[in-house]
Structure formats: structure tokens, C-alpha cells
Amino acid sequence: MTLTTPSHSTQSATEMRALIGQKLMLDLRYFCQQGKGAQCREPMTSLPPELKNLLHEYQIGGVILFAENVQDIEQIVALTEQLHGATEQPPFIAIDQEGGRVARINRAEATSFTGNMSIGASYAQHGTHYAHQVASAIGKELAVLGINVNFAPTVDVNANPDNPVINVRSFGEDPQMVAKLGAAQVNAFEQQGVISAIKHFPGHGDTNVDSHTGLPRVNHTLAQIHQQDIAPFATIIKQQAPGMIMTAHIQYPALDDTQILNKHGAKMLRPATMSRKIMHDLLRGDLGYQGVTITDALDMAGISDFFEPEQAVIETFAAGVDIALMPFAIRSAQDIHGFREFMENLCLRASSQLDATELRTSAQRIQTLKARFLPSKRHLSSTIAQSVLGNPQHRKLEAELALAAITEVKNDKLLPLATRANQHIHLIMPDKQKALALKQALLAHSSHPLTITLSSLQGFNPARAKADIENADWIIAGHATPAQSAVEIGGMEDVTTLAQFSVAARAQPDALKELLTFAQSHHKPTLFISLRAPYEITRFAPYSQAVLASYAYNVDVETTREVSGPAYTALAKVILGQEKAKGILPVTLNKQAD
Q: By the number of CB atoms within 10 A of the CB, which of 14, 46, 372, 489 ranks highest?
């Protein structure tokens, strides 16, 4: 969609507005009736008349839902019905329900599974079985809620141990394995009537910058790009032709070294999202992709730090991308006025700067995909949705995958633990919530009563922790790298203890190393568990007689008495010898961990 000045006499302003509206996907995460603007944090759980009118007026092509929008099953069904009724054309209703770390729907209700790297760990023994079955289950759950696009799977090849944003969202480091598992998931999602959007093209796996907070750059050679980064996309396009492909806000100088002038008046390398060489010549020309392309969120710092909203959308469309995701935040009635101005300016610029034929071709791709997946009439039932989400079959599958993924990286005759009655285990975990989850799983599966004490890496009394270590028969320590965000941690910590003995996130690995060194000096048999990206094993393995990797730590059921999650149940069964760890590391570790 080259920047040009063609004749647009055949295209009216009304047609242009409708055409551009179909090429936008908005987030309606928060909405405040009283103008709070960007400070608004009131979740939009039911479509207000003002937003319904706006969606209809501009015939907006789709919306993306976040956790704030999807609070319980009956509410989600009602909301998707409202969204469906707001526009003449059925809208894309999208969500990030990858499984594992990224799952927007309440884990206690929807089956969220243990994520892509756990599927990668199961590949050697189970092939594509879990990739297909997990995506099929997630697809069924989304479809009965009226959600018709899943921004999944992530098919980035995680080749960088320091990757802060992909890591366990990737199946692993082998491009061929990633391609096979990704293709299986695309097939399964779309069999359930949910459009799959593979991401993040042309690859976000070898970066140490998160494009939410910065603009990553990949300096691979062309050969490396084709063998590693692009390979899964190329294979999946040939085998499954996914409904959508999502872009990456990332610079690839070997693919496009041209420059663009940003809002600060400085020249910079074009991000892939705005690169015609990447999104049109490579993706459509060389790889032959004929489906719909969509940007990653345009409010991410990788774009918004450098471009104003209108320029971002125009450059994106000029590059040949079909849909602009989250181009303008609407949080209040005041923002609605701002959006109207944004749209009018956008349509004027599109009329004068974009190729009319390409705009129509793009709109046709969108219509073709909608005709294939989005029925004009839907029959949703919250009763049916209640019976599908988190049903016993899906929970059983979730537990089976969690167990199939557990990987024994090291075992110097420590596992399984030969427990006797009233022996003492001391747990050191990233936070109290995760410590309680593993404690309860161990107690539930032990044939003997055990004493289990806890230290949280968020905040612990050093003297008390060392006393517990001295009194323990075994030490079990878990850690999660990269560091968790506040959202992931949850709210179960004791506030007073945290204030008194809080450990800053960056200091927690050193705090763990100190406790493990203390345990080693007192000859305490120690098990280390990598709860997320297994690269950290290299650092902590020397202080442990055994090492397990679970690739997941999510807590799904949390009450005043019970905290549980499939990874903790699987770990407990392996630790106590009821099951064997059969997973295989899908990424390479430094040999020091062997």
C-alpha cells in the first residue's frame, strides 16, 4: 500500500470512512462516564451506548478484549453479543489466550494450561499431540463465549536466553519443532471456528528488549533470518494458511535498512510493522501469504515512542498491513471526540496518500476472512458456555500436559524423596502464593504427614529462614526468570512482613543464592525447580543435588484455604516418586548445569 497520490474520484468520503473503519481493531479495556481520560481504570464489562454508537458510526472492524473485559462467563457472553450487534458487519472479537503466562480469562473458570514451552518439552515423547489438543480445548472455550480471534500461537523461535517478553511463550529454539507445533495449533483453533493469528512476524525470538517498552533490533544475516526467525512462519503459511499473521515492532536491517522520519524529526530504521519490504514484498511476495495481517498493539512503546497515532496507522497501511490494532485509546466521552477527529484526519490522509486499489484489496481480504469464520447470526448460550469452560476433560488435559512437561535436568540420587513420617521440608519460592501451592500439593500427595515451612523471596526474615533450613531434612527452592510483574504475583503476601523484610525484585536471585549457599554449607539435600524459563538453571544447579523444570507456575484455584495449579500437582507427583519426569528441555543450557 504505497504512499502515493492517486485519483480517488470514484471513492466517496463515506466509502473511505467505512473502509478505514473495517481496518481498525480497538481496545475498550476501560471506560469512564465521567472524564478521567488516560487515568480511567473502570473496566468496560458492558458496552455503553456511546461506544456502541461509535462502533456503528465508523463500522469498526473489530475489538480486542483484555482481562478487565472478561470477568465471568455470563458477562462475557452478554458483552460479545452486544459487540456483535453494534455493527452491520460481524466484528472480529479478539483476545490473547495463548495459555500459560498469557491467558486473559479468569483461570478458575477457563482452562489456561501451562503454556507453549511446556508443549515443546513434551514434543520428544508426544509429538504434536498436546499442541493440537490444547488449542482445540482453548478454541472450544473461546467459541462458546463468542470470541472469534485468538492472537496465538506465538511461533517466535526463542534463541536468546535474555528474551524478556517471549521466553516460555515460545515452543523452543528449534525452528522445525516450532513450525510443527504452531501448525498443529493453527489447525486446531480454526477447526473450532476461531481465527488463529500467528505472531510476531518476522520473529521476536532473538531479542533482549521488550517491544512493549522499547524498539528491539535483530542484526541477523539474511541466511540466519530465513533458517531461524522466518522458518516457522514460512512452513505454517504453506501447511495451514492461518487466518491472520501479527507483526512485530522490531527492526531487521538485513530485511529493510531504509529509514523513516519519526515524530521527533530524527531518522530511524523502519520497524517491521511499517516496512513494505517485510510486510508486502517478503510476506506476500516471497512467502505467498494471502490472508489478513494485523499489527501488534500500536500503543506499545516500540511504535508510540516514535510516531503519532495517525502517522503510525498510515505507515502501517502503506506497508501493506491490513488491520491496525489499538491505534487510539478511548477511555471517556472526551476521547470519543478525539477519536472522531482522528478518524476524519486518517480518512483524509488515506485518500491523498494511499493507493485506492490496494485499500480495496485489503478490505476484500478482511471480508473474505469474516465470511469464512464469522456467521451473521450467532446463537450463544451462557449455560452451554458454563458447561464447556474448565470442564473435567479440559482440566484432565491440562494436568496431563503439566506432567508430561516436567523435565529432570539433574538428579544426584536425590529424587524421588524417600519421605518418612514427620520429616521437614523447607520451601523457598518466589512468593507466598506459589509456596502455598507447592506445599498443599506435596501434602495432598504424600503418604506420610510432613512438616513444611516456607520462605518467600518477596519478603522473608533471614534469621527465621536460616533456622528453618537448619531444621529441615530437605530444601526445595523454586525461582522464575525473567522476574515476575506485579500483575503475575497476585495479592496473597502478608503486607506487614513484606514491608519489614521486602526483597527488591532484582535482588531476589542473589537472596536465593545466599539461602542455597547456606543450605549447602549445612549439607542439606536440595532440589532446585525452574518455574519459568530454564536458562536460570545454569546459575542455581551447582547448589542443588537435583533440578527440575516446569515452565509454568500459574495458580488457577485460590481460596482462603486452597491454592493450586496444574504445575504444582505435577511437580509434587514427580518429587514424591508417584510419576516420572519425562519432559525434554526444548532450549539449550550452559553445560555448567549438567
A: 489
